[in-house]
């Protein structure tokens, strides 16, 4: 196969995958997978159960079966319930279709931003906002308090004894709530610039029964005040328009013996091409979402999604942390850091 043929096949496969993700999002938003959870349905039965048009129901069912998401008799294929329906479960990946639709909807605005040098505000990326929360929630629910935080004994000990926690760039609050649920003595304050995310976060905390110990504020991470034993930043530092200012402010908020715990993208220390699959994904997100969203904030700098370890460690030293460290915590997508 020639290089020309291989590239053509690669683009054709990518097109098929992208279009199938859009059909997955149709199934998610309309509740079609949920309607099929208890068993197969015919097109008329699905149309009635989901409140949709019968002709569209038939086309979607056939397409999903052709793609392998359903069986030939229109039942959920093995694994589909865990991957597309069980939000918060360890195998959940339904956020992939939210990401795909979200960036596709905003691509014309990104093209305009390329020409003007301006940005696309984070508030415009509604599907992406929910996709980020959906992708990260299983990790917060299943790994944050069972593997990541316990990997640093002094952090774990502080949480067990009732630490005050500041969760910067908290998004929809799943990280804040996970910490409160696992450590009954802590209080957590979540901070984010996005008003819609904070509104969702408050409802998440209320539903989990921890609203008495978890609060959320719309604020700039570089200007938060208070005193905290632990400050966390989960996959948000690369999106902040003044990362050194945020870290410098965080250092001033730490109580004696406190730490900043950061998770951000696991990418190579230096630019290489071609890159691995995860870094390719991060770069695509950077072009389509993270860089435009940061440019919309009139930033001190706009890093984009690809935050390399030497860059983050350099920011930390500039912010006044003398010995920032990369932690030995395994994850396919994130690298972890401790600053104190």
CATH superfamily of the largest domain: Vaccinia Virus protein VP39
| Structural class by secondary-structure content | alpha/beta
Which architecture of the largest domain does the CATH hierarchy give at level 2?
3-Layer(aba) Sandwich
The pLDDT mean sits at 97
State the strand order across the main sheet.
3-2-1-4-5-7-6
Number of helical regions: 13
Q: What general outline do the C-alpha atoms trace? A: globular
Low-confidence stretches: none
Write the H/E string, N to C: HHHHHHHHEHEHEEHEHHEE
| Domain tally | 2
Using only C-alpha atoms, the radius of gyration works out to 22 Å
Helix fraction? 40-55%
Overall strand count: 7
Distance between the termini: 54 Å
Biggest beta sheet attributes: 7 strands, mixed
SSE inventory with pairings:
Blueprint lengths: L2 H27 L2 H4 L7 H8 L3 H14 L12 H6 L9 H22 L9 H23 L4 H8 L3 E5 L5 H9 L4 E6 L2 H14 L5 E5 L9 E7 L8 H11 E12 L11 H19 L13 H10 L6 E2 L7 E6 L1
Parallel strand pairs: 1-2, 1-4, 2-3, 4-5
Antiparallel strand pairs: 5-7, 6-7
GO molecular function: methyltransferase activity
Pfam families: Methyltransf_31, WHD_Rv2258c
InterPro entries: Methyltranfer_dom, SAM-binding_MTase, SAM-dependent_MTases_sf, WH-like_DNA-bd_sf, WH_DNA-bd_sf, WHD_Rv2258c
């Amino acid at each position: 196969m020639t290089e020309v043929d291989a590239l053509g096949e690669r683009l054709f496969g990518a097109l098929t995958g992208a279009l199938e993700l859009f059909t997955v999002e149709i199934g998610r938003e309309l509740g079609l997978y949920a309607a099929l959870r208890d068993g197969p349905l015919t097109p008329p039965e699905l149309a009635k159960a989901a409140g949709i048009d019968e002709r569209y129901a038939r086309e979607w069912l056939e397409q999903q079966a052709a793609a392998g998401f359903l069986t030939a008799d229109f039942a959920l294929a093995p694994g589909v319930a865990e991957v597309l329906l069980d939000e918060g479960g360890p195998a959940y990946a339904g956020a992939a279709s939210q990401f795909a639709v979200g960036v596709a909807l905003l691509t014309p605005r990104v093209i305009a931003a390329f020409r003007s040098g301006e940005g696309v505000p984070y508030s415009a990326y509604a599907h992406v906002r929910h996709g980020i929360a959906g992708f990260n929630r299983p990790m917060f629910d299943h790994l944050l308090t069972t593997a990541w935080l316990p990997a640093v004994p002094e952090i774990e000990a502080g949480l067990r004894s009732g630490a005050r926690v500041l969760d910067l760039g908290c998004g929809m609050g799943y990280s804040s709530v996970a910490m409160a649920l696992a450590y009954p003595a802590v209080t957590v304050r979540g901070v984010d610039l996005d008003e819609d995310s904070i509104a969702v976060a408050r409802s998440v905390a209320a539903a989990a029964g921890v609203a008495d110990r978890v609060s959320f504020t719309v604020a700039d991470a570089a200007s938060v005040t208070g005193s905290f034993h632990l400050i966390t930043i989960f996959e948000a530092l690369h999106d902040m328009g003044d990362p050194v200012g945020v870290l410098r402010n965080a250092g001033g908020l730490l109580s004696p013996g406190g730490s900043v715990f950061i998770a951000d993208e696991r990418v190579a220390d230096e630019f290489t091409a071609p890159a691995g699959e995860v870094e390719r994904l991060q770069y695509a997100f950077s072009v389509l979402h993270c860089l435009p969203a940061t440019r919309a904030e009139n930033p001190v700098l706009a890093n984009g999604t690809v935050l390399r370890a030497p860059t983050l460690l350099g920011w930390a030293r500039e912010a006044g942390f003398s010995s920032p460290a990369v932690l030995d915590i395994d994850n396919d997508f994130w690298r972890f850091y401790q600053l104190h």
